[in-house]
Amino acid sequence: MARAVLSQADIQRALTRISHEILESNRGGADLVVLGIPTRGAVLARRIAESIARIEPEAAPVPVGTLDVTMYRDDLSRTRTRTPQPTELPASGIDGKTVVLVDDVLYSGRTIRAALDALSDLGRPRAVRLAVLVDRGHREFPIRADFVGKNLPSSSEERIFVRLAETDGKEGVAIEGGAK
Length: 180
Description:
By secondary structure, this protein is of the alpha/beta class. It is built from four helices and eight strands. The protein has one domain: Rossmann fold, CATH 3.40.50. Strands 3-2-4-5-6 form a five-stranded parallel β-sheet, with helices on both faces. A three-stranded antiparallel β-sheet has the order 1-8-7. Helix 3 (110-122) links the parallel strand 4 and strand 5. The chain is globular and about 50 Å long.
């Protein structure tokens, strides 16, 4: 049985907080690019950019894009494969910008390692930051999120399910499995 850990309102609050933290650490939205990792990371990236626009309505909109990392993964033979999706960079590119990578769940760090490899093929950002909705631990690489919605320590037998209205028709984060 899945146990709910974040409601729709909790997700919204977390994304608003993350947006404020991004603006604070970057000293505003100038030279900022937000890139979401498909599928749910791309949705969260759009929401963060919209939140930043609400926080700083007088500033130029923060460019948003997507970064598909499927073909950069080192664990393709051991994980479910999904169809690669297009990488869509903003017209302004990423060179010299602060890029905020956005994903739904940070677990082993393999997806983010792949994202860093993909970014290096696309340009040279000034800095790369990481925003995640859920950090569940169990890192296999020395990767740490700069902006976290919820730290959710979990066992490796448990699964975290992020549901977003745009992709799943409902909203929330749940944890399932583990010790009975």
